[in-house]
Amino acid sequence: MNTTWLSLSVNRPKIVLCIGFLLIFVAAFGAKNLYFRGDYKVFFEEDNPQRLAFESMQAHFSKNDGVSIIIAPHSGKVFSVQTLSLIQELTEAAEQTPYSSRIDSLSNFQHTWAEEDDMIVEDLVEDASTLLPGDLDKIQKIALQEPNLLHRLISPKGDVAVINISVNLPDGDQTPEVIKITDSVMAMTDKFKANYPEHDFYHTGVVLMNYSFFSFASNDFESIVPLMFLTIILIMWILLKTLSGTLATLLIIITSIAATMGVGGWFGMFLSTATVNVPTMVMTLAVADCIHIISSMLFGMRAGKNKKEALLYSLDLNKMPIFITSATTSIGFLTLNFAEVPILADLGNLTAVGVLFACLFSLTILPALIMLLPIKVKAQAPNSRDLGHIERFGEWVIRHHKRILPFTLIITVLAVVFSFKNNLDDVPTDYFHESTQFRQATEFQEQHVSGMTSMDFAIYTGEDSGVNQPHNLKVIEDFSIWLRQQPEIDHVSTVTDTYKRLNKNMHADDLSYYKLPNDRETAAQFMLLYEMSLPYGLDLNNHLDMKKSATRIMTMVKNMGSKELVELELRAQTWFSQNAPNLQLSAASPGLMFAHISEINMASMLKGTVVALLLISGLLIFALKSFKLGAISLLPNLLPACIGFGIWGIYSGQVNLGLSIVLSMTLGIIVDDTVHFLSKYRHARINGCDAQESVRYAFASVGRALWITTLVLATGFSILMLSPFALNSEMGMLTGIIILVALAVDFLFLPPFLMVFDKKTKQE
Amino acid sequence: MKLAHSMIHKLPKLGFKLFITTIMFVITLGLAHGQTAQEKGLAIAKERKARDLGWGDSVAEMSMILRNANGDEAERKMRMKSLEIKDDGDKGLTIFDQPLDVKGTAFLNFSHALKPDDQWMYLPKLSKVKRIRSKNKSGPFMGSEFSYEDMSSFELEKFKFKYLKDDKFEGQNCFVIEQVPTDKNSGYSKQLVWVDKKHYRALKVEFYDRKNSFLKELLNLEFELYLDKYWRPMRVEMFNEQTSKSTDLVTHSIEFKTGLNDNDFNQGSLKNLR
């Protein structure tokens, strides 16, 4: 980069600002095109097998995701006049839920029974207020023996009941619909809570989970994220002791983010759960760039230079490292294009652009602003005995470098060992702190009735009416039985139970006929009769497709991690291919898709970032024009993540989707620390210093800036720990840890390493 | 109410009753200025009913073509026998021919305006007639987008009517009538019916579900005139707006006044079908 070009900012600040802000405004204006997409499709390529399975299932069967309302009477007795009345009324009221397509509850369960040659089809609970104790006992007996109800709509103890509202959501971003549905359901249960105060109500289900994700994310975005930015600004002001410099930095952060998001808008990108992190990532490097320039300038002014001289000095000193950091980080982020997940590519590309904007603005807009803003620093007489804290710390490291080095090795080994303790696993319900209503609701449901996660299996026979074939029915039943034996599965809803019940009903409720029909015609005719007698909204399309050629078995699974869910799916596929090789099985559900998303995302993200760090070290060989320094840079590039995840392995060991993004979040800072330290070191070496003197020079010239950057960002990210949303609080914590570790590595481990392994090159 | 079958079954009364009704209708129209929307709606519905009285009985061969959101199709074939009943809903007998595994299954139904219908089903494999006792009328008919409710005869007692506006549909001048079902087990909060002013035929119906969201749209197409008086659509298309599934009900042939009577519509007759 050309210094005369850069000096334009110092000499003609107003012109630079005018042109700069004009261009920024044009770029940022593209943000008007941005929109948010929260739907699952953004995570998958169009030919992704999970996506295809899910979409095929949605085309053949009715959608079955929605809201569950859990009703817990204080009396512990669901089978009472009062609670059954509540369930009946609430079931009816629930039909008013926006987008609802089906309501399932204890009361509208279609109870079928026989009276000679009559088949009676009726709601299990009718006119609840007139029920006598004998009726209640009868209903209880039926409900607790009914495989379709037990562990799904009624707890085995009869103390908790569930009402399921299935919804039919349009394609695309479903956030507005999800909010509408949740608001409606909440308002409805509030009303019932007032009329039936002796009951507790809880809400779970996929819609509620999406709502919770959205509302916690946006709450954090409105309260904790601004607090984080405020903290960063405040700490920067305290440490840099210059209000003008802090305000100028703030402006660079804002303009870098605005221009980046604007460019995204111009290119037709959309926001997603991945790309919403772009502003934070851009912010970290904007902060680092600005602090380097400002602290070098302040150093110059304290040494007696005037503002202009000090600024030019600072630009001259920092332009290369800032450029190298930005360029290599940017290239690093571009490697996310190799990830299998489309939105991670967006995240990488947008951050790459943002990092370059931050670089450009901090080298042009920032100096121009500083020229116009008042900054006064007293010149201090240089006093060699009056070393700063950082320099004294540097001296300590230099003195003890031989003793520190073994520690480095031990800690590195330990970190690697402990980082393997981490388990890549995503438990969606664990994203919410135990204090949140949603988490309490899912735990209550799991404790009393079933997990909240659903997993659906579709069996395709490939022939019209094929489900009615006895040999296929047998497979479906055997598979259902196998599913019921799996410890992770709480409930299985299968059409074979309906066939068996109908067979019994058709033979005057003779229990010995509670078995599958013997032939295809019998099965088909029973099902036709049943289908003709069902009420509004309770059709067979949840179990059978239009041609009766495919059936869907719906299971409720414990609230477990992505790994176990994917593993359960695999086990089911294995059983099926061994026992029914000529039928086709597919598994799908939002939970399962999310599990696959997480698995793919986490792996792509972590691998991608590690590859990026390796690549950056490779690039540094050229940027620093030294093979040795490039190789040594592997240490400060990789070790922070290693130690950070090692600490995490000891602290928690659970790495979820949110945490897999942390490494990308800290990538810029890790590289910034490395590049600035090594380039100053290199500068001294070229000018003839030995390793020890060069380390001392690096500490003196860049130590303070790195220290301030680290403190500012680590404090900022630790603010995120206040969030009840684990996605954010854990991300804040681990990001903070890695940023601190990155500095520790650069200050403690890198210098001894250089002093031992970079001895001989003095004469080169 | 509704169309498809409503067009196929129909009411009693001929001659005198028809005369009286027509006179009343003319008078009603004369008073149109002072009419409320409810009165006008009812008057139009009465005229629609009146124009379709006296068809007696019919035998039709039909197909249902079911389509899911993917566009996959499945065909169901059936024969429908209908008998017009005075002062009550009609009687209907449906014999299923396809899919093959339900061939010969027959469904007998006495429709009633205000109480649950009487329903029986003959299951050939079991050689038994089963009576179905259920209040449900709104379930799907053979897995199609037609509910059972949509297939039964149009009776004035089943709805509260309200005239909404005049409109054009496919170039024909229409009344738009709102019909609110009186049965609380109905699957609908309301229906909007486009009735053409010339022949009082329902050309289009919009169905709204219990939460008052647009659910289905029905089109009666390819009208043919029978016995110089009775219009029947040879193709009825039902499209579900919420699921994008659809069903076409196609009449291949229909005959009137075939001499059917009450004896052809009882449990005994169910067993003796071909």
UniProtKB/TrEMBL annotation, chain A:
Organism, scientific name: Paraglaciecola algarum
Transmembrane feature ranges: 223-240, 247-269, 281-301, 322-345, 351-375, 404-420, 605-624, 631-651, 657-678, 705-727, 733-757
Bilayer topology annotation: Multi-pass membrane protein
Protein's UniProt name: MMPL family transporter
Entry-linked InterPro entries: MMPL_dom, Mycobact_MmpL, SSD
UniProt key word Cytoplasm: no
Taxonomy of the source species: Bacteria, Pseudomonadati, Pseudomonadota, Gammaproteobacteria, Alteromonadales
UniProt keyword annotations, A-Z: Cell membrane, Membrane, Transmembrane, Transmembrane helix
Main location: membrane
